[in-house]
Design a protein that fits this description.
The chain is mainly alpha-helical and about 150 residues long. Helices cover about 50% and strands about 10% of the residues.
Length: about 150
């Protein structure tokens, strides 16, 4: 089994749950913490965090419509969380695309930047869910419904 890095936590009780891919490797009593290794997809999940950072920067000044006017980044986090839960965390590229799904449409982030930072697969997913603003909104929504219905 490959090892992909180390991390320090103060209490492993909050981190280790059944079926987690974490393994305690030693207890460090002096630092009153534990060292653990993560086996599996660490690189991919680091990319998820980088996508969160990029989305936060790209949408920093946006707010949601409505009375609460919450930061727009909350919407992106909610969508990414739903996708992560639906896929049981097995598809980091899909979670990244969910996090970035409005980057091209709302912030005019070039597809090439997304492809360069997160790969062609992610860029393709983001592009697929990007509305063509040259088309009137009612027609765009109609096309979305028809597209989903055909899958």
């Amino acid at each position: 089994m490959a090892t992909y890095g180390y991390a320090r936590v103060s209490s492993m009780l909050d981190v280790i749950r059944p079926n987690d891919s974490l393994m305690v490797t030693r207890i460090d009593r002096k630092a009153s913490g534990c060292t653990f290794r993560r086996h599996g997809m660490t690189k991919e999940w680091i990319a998820v965090l980088k996508a969160a950072d990029a989305a936060a920067k790209w949408h920093v000044h946006l707010r949601r419509k409505g009375a609460s006017e919450e930061p727009y980044i909350n919407h992106l986090l909610e969508v990414a969380t739903l996708v992560a839960e639906a896929t049981h965390g097995q598809d980091p590229d899909l979670v990244i695309a969910a996090r970035l799904h409005d980057a091209i449409e709302d912030q005019e982030v070039p597809r090439a930047i997304i492809a360069s930072a997160f790969g062609e697969a992610v860029a393709g997913l983001v592009e697929e869910v990007t509305d063509d603003k040259a088309i009137e909104m009612q027609k765009r929504k109609q096309l979305q419904v028809e597209s989903v219905g055909g899958r």
